[in-house]
Design a protein that fits this description.
2 domains; elongated; 23% strand; alpha+beta; 3-stranded antiparallel beta sheet; 188 residues; Ribosomal Protein L9, domain 2; Ribosomal Protein L9, domain 1; 4-stranded mixed beta sheet
Length: 188
């Protein structure tokens, strides 16, 4: 057993400094890559919107493990290879057009939301506290009554509203568009 270990150690020592061994294990290829290529070596085409990563139709660079363990099993992306790269570059133009349309609709919705003044009348205690609380789900319903459709996750509310007064509530439409609505709570 010792002899086998000695032969293996000698073999590693002899070939570890040779150019053949470095080509065999690929150390020259790794060291010649730039740090950005090492960090995000795989290009993928997104099939669906992935939060904090990108929109459907974008070509992005991601780490191998993220692509193999998250994007590919969930069918959120396809790997870009030399053979299919031209096909996906043509589709990028369609995505850019879609982004422009979405951003214009989103900015129009942001203007509509910013102009809203919502008044809510609720039962209150003598000290000005509400019997219940106004949470994000109720704000979604109030906005729906005004003709604005948003989801509960888009309403940024630190904690539910439990007293009368005027409050500013942020609606997150995108990472850059966050209009605020004025919510006034009055006693019945």
């Amino acid at each position: 057993m010792r002899m086998l270990f000695f032969i293996f150690a000698l073999y590693i020592w002899l070939f570890s400094n040779s150019p053949f061994f470095s080509i065999l294990i690929g150390t020259d290829l790794i060291s010649s890559a730039t740090s950005k290529e090492k960090e995000f070596p795989m290009k993928v085409y997104l099939l669906k919107d992935v939060e904090k990563i990108g929109l459907a139709g974008e070509v992005i660079k991601v780490k191998d493990g993220f692509a193999a363990n998250y994007l590919f099993p969930r069918k959120l992306a396809i790997e870009i290879t030399a053979s299919n790269e031209a096909f996906y570059k043509g589709r990028i133009k369609l995505v850019e057009h879609r982004k422009e349309v979405v951003s214009s609709k989103t900015s129009m919705l942001a203007e509509k939301i910013a102009a809203l003044k919502v008044v809510v009348k609720r039962k209150m205690h003598d000290d000005g506290k509400l019997y219940g609380a106004i949470n994000a789900l109720e704000i979604v319903e109030l906005l729906k009554d005004k003709g604005v459709s948003v989801s509960k996750s888009q309403v940024e509310l630190e904690k539910s509203i439990k007293s009368k007064g005027v409050f500013e509530v942020t609606i997150k439409l995108s990472s850059s568009l966050k209009p605020k609505i004025s919510l006034q709570v009055l006693p019945e």
